[in-house]
Q: What sequence folds into this?
């Protein structure tokens, strides 16, 4: 069951399809009109039939009213796209066209050009010419060119072309969906963590977003005044009592809290979750209570909860709030996640936002806590581990707070393997399994004097996954790290030996990065040793190539990844900055172009 939960989206950006054509009348243009428009329709159908918006609806495409043979038709298409809320464009052609007269000149829209690889008509020649124009004018564009020559009458889209079109569209839509939204900073800096020192300029210049701030006194004010939907609160609390099972209390006898106190903490935690959601996206139910300003929310597509310590020293922690909002379901059924970063780490919040928009799945927020070598595992557990997914060691992803309940890995793909899925694909049975695989524990009182309930689970093994981190570097700006790998399920005795070495009330994911034998991926230790911060995001699937494409659209360099070269897709002009050292070329290109909304 999909819920009708409040959302930041009132509409979704569309993909503009630009069929370009040789403008010469007298036989040339007339012979190409139908073929060119058919190519546009095929591309639009591919995108709309494959990709979905964050609510599960098909992505909409808008095709120019006519083929574009010159400047006037290019301008008419641009006018239509502005009216139709187009956020990215794909230009398609089977033939030669006049490059600078037909190109998309909007500097803010991600753009790609598909030139048909057929020898009868030089669509590929136009592709090369128009990409040269984009490079010369400083307006990056992605080039799409099929590997194999097709007959002029062949209207099929080759697999390699299809993959590039869809990858471009996924990433371009992520860019378009962020624009104009907000990051809601709920509180300020948590325990001196640099990532929670929210950088307004980064959000504005790179993502086209604004930062909204509220003090956490807003939570206690709304709790005390009952400024939330009372009926939904009662429904949510009843659901929690039925589905959120409590686990062991790991506090000492002198620091354990009473049953009465724990029940009160549960009630506050549920209210906090409702209030955080309302602060982000608003809630029309509040208007019915006369709270018209509060009902509007902050238009936030992502947020962060400061928590420690200004809040948690006095009130129940934000673990339940973050875990349930980041998940793909709650008491109302399946729904899109609300992205909320632990400890208001806005840089990890940005990474979570990227991952959700690229995959439509929930994200795991975690500490990159420990590297365990095989020797260290043997010393700690007495077991000599031999696991097909572990090369020389594993990384312990564990969060001093929650992660999305989807991270249990209880959802399965078409092959029955553990997965994290879009909310519209999650079954009621899978939601129940995620809840059953999670226990809720009274938080450790020394850490959280104000109480609260903490999540505990372990992620099922064998799931392809991608670990990322967005870092902010003085003098450089944001820079991205990516590590593809697999989740690993350890034997229960080994898991307990390692997991019990740290706080047992936090969710655990054992992650094995894919090693290349070079640089930061020489060993699992090197992956951790080169990581830029204490936090990371884990996205289900090997999607590092999507992160790389998205980063290039935003002009964010990638300085560490293990994605194979043949999967990397960046704008064509990146090649002008070097073809031998792709990492260096990426840095030079991003520095040259500057942030997408940088107003240079």
A:
């Amino acid at each position: 069951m999909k819920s009708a939960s409040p959302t930041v989206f009132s509409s979704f950006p569309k993909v503009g399809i630009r069929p370009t054509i040789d403008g010469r009348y007298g036989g040339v243009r007339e012979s190409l009109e139908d073929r060119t428009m058919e190519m546009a329709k095929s591309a639009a159908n591919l995108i709309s039939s494959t990709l979905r918006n964050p609510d599960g609806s098909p992505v909409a495409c808008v095709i120019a009213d006519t083929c574009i043979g010159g400047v006037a038709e290019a301008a008419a298409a641009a006018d239509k796209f502005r009216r139709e809320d187009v956020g990215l464009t794909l230009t398609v052609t089977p033939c030669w066209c006049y490059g600078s007269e037909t190109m998309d000149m909007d500097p803010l829209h991600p753009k790609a050009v598909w030139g048909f690889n057929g020898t009868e008509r030089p669509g590929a020649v136009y592709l090369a010419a128009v990409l040269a124009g984009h490079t010369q004018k400083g307006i990056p564009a992605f080039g799409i060119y099929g590997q194999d020559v097709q007959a002029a009458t062949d209207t099929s889209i080759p697999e390699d072309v299809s993959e590039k079109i869809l990858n471009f569209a996924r990433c371009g839509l992520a860019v378009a969906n962020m624009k104009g939204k907000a990051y809601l900073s709920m509180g300020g800096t948590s325990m001196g963590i640099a990532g929670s020192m929210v950088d307004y300029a980064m959000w504005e210049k790179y993502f086209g977003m604004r930062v909204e701030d509220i003090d956490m006194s807003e939570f206690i004010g709304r709790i005390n005044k009952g400024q939330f939907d009372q009926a939904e609160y009662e429904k949510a609390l009843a659901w929690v009592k039925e589905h959120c099972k409590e686990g062991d209390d790991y506090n000492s006898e002198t620091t354990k809290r009473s049953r009465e106190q724990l029940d009160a903490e549960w009630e506050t935690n549920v209210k906090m979750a409702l209030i955080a959601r309302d602060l982000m996206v608003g809630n029309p139910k509040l208007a019915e209570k006369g709270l018209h300003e509060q009902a509007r929310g902050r238009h936030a597509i992502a947020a962060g909860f400061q928590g420690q310590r200004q809040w948690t020293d006095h009130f129940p922690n934000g673990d339940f709030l973050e875990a349930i909002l980041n998940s793909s379901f709650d008491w109302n059924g399946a729904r899109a996640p609300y992205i909320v970063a632990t400890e208001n780490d806005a840089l990890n919040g940005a990474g979570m936002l990227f991952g959700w928009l690229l995959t439509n799945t929930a994200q795991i927020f975690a500490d990159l806590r420990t590297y365990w070598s095989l020797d260290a595992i043997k010393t700690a557990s007495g077991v000599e581990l031999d696991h097909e997914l572990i090369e020389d060691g594993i990384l312990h992803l564990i969060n001093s707070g929650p992660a999305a309940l989807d991270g249990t890995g209880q959802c399965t793909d078409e092959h029955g393997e553990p997965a994290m899925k879009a909310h519209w694909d999650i079954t009621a049975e899978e939601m129940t399994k995620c809840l059953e695989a999670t226990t809720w524990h009274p938080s450790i009182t020394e850490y959280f004097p104000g109480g609260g309930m903490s999540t505990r689970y372990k992620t099922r093994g064998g799931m392809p996954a991608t670990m990322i981190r967005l870092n902010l570097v003085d003098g450089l700006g944001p820079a991205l790290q990516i590590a593809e790998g697999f989740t690993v399920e350890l034997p229960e005795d080994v898991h307990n030996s390692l997991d019990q070495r740290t706080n047992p009330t936090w969710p655990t994911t054992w992650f094995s990065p894919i090693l290349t034998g070079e640089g930061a991926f020489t060993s699992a230790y090197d992956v951790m040793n080169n990581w830029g911060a204490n936090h990371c995001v884990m996205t289900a699937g090997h999607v590092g190539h999507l992160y790389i494409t998205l980063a290039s659209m935003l002009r964010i360099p990638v300085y560490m990844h293990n994605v194979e070269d043949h999967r990397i897709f960046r704008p064509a002009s990146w090649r002008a900055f070097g073809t031998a050292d792709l990492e260096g070329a990426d840095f030079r290109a991003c520095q040259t172009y500057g942030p997408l909304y940088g107003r240079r």
